[in-house]
Amino acid sequence: MIIIYTIQISPANYFDDVKILITTAPFEAENTGDISYARQMERCLRNLGHEVIYLRAQELGLAVEVSKALDTSVRLSVTYAALKKIGDSLLHCILTTIPKDTVLFMHFRIPHTGFSFSTKHLSQLKAAGYKICALINEHSCNREEPTEIERNYQTAQLIPFFDQIITFNPIDKAGLLETAGTKNFYHCADNKTLAKSNAWTLFQVGNAYPEPSSLEERISLIPAPILSAQKYDPGPEERPDNILMFGTIRRNKGNTATLNLAQLLADKGVPTIQIKIVGKVLADMNGFNSFRQYVLSTFPERLGFCADFKPLERMLAEKEHRVEKLSSLDDYENEFNSLCKEIVSDLELQVTKKRPKALPIEFHIDVSEESFRTLCHQSRYGIKFDKKGFCDNASTIINMMGFGLIVISNKTHMMNPVFNLCPEEELPLVLLDTMDPEAELLFQTILNLKEDTLARQRVLNNLERVMTTMYDPMRVTSQVVRVLEKALNVECHAKKIAQEDDKTDQTENESSSNRKSP
């Protein structure tokens, strides 16, 4: 969850003395994730001249709870208990320290890494006078999962509290409208079930409801942000045919497809293509198992490689104690990823000394933004496959596209219609009709792009077009800022400007009259 607390905000610097508090609850601290989005918003808002404060939940002494909320290998009951404690603490912090004429900007995903605030929390915030703008991501991307009913139920309970809602794809927007049309809303503050006709209005302090405002009118559809660049940065035209995989190293992130492709490249004896795996290892059992799978497949024991995973296993066994002792989940994750780097470095040293044949995979764990940029410019292709399609991996894909990579992804029912309904000759990326591609298909796709210069250049031209228009980083950011401004009392601002204009006109008229007087 990302929250931007702001007294006043405007992309055009209409307001003075702007103060903004950005705070993140539990999400992965990675270049593709929500914490990076908060940091980019912080930078951009500072560049607009706003005073910004950034606060994270673990800085309120909640490192252990954040760790539990992020751990994808624990039961949901554990996740929810941690989220509740985080929500209670954040609520107390807001009510006691944040001015009431403030907009809260919340990024939430339900249920797992999700939303710390319940309807009880939100009703207290609304009663206190705060306005709330929500960025809702992945609402509709898990339609086949058992948690769908619970996900929709929770979302339905929260929607009435939001003054403005942002989605990154039309499917999520449609899903929210469907959810709102089929669920009853319940307001905890007055134990009153809202009538369906009022389901899309906001409950205000007092007895009266505001003028009807449909959810359709309150939802703003904004392209997903690029998180690691301020502008489109395609890099050099001449670059190696390397392949880059970017994102959290954990299950369901294309591990099998990547390993199969690497094995095929080795079998075919293609020395000019390396696969660069870039990202952070998720510091839980799922992340560990995925990392271990990558390492053992890349540096197989049967060829004499020896990898020691015991330090990582000990860290996981002592996770809660270590996080509590460190008082920072960041410190724990950094130590965990440092151990992962050491394992990879040791295995690479074994390659140098013993010269056994490893798969053509390079590991780049927990890299800086500048290093990520360099790695992208040292590659030509990006691969990102997921059953959830573009809507879930939008930020990851846009990041790779932002540095000039030709991204190969998959068509799904969740694909952004901007691309899904686009003629093939206008596509800025390559889409395959499968969620689990065979290595041969990936290899052939890359080979075709390598040999067909015109086709490759067409994709690059389309890529430049969308990255300098629809997905231009600053354009997307300014759209988010405008939505926040919309959630403020714009009418008062317009009235104030009109009053100032009238005052200016009056002064000018008086000056003119004085000049005409004898």
Automatic annotation (TrEMBL):
Composition-biased stretches (Basic and acidic residues): 497-506
Biased amino acid composition, Polar residues: 509-518
Region annotation Disordered: where it falls in the sequence: 497-518
Protein name from the UniProt record: Glycosyltransferase
Organism: Legionella birminghamensis
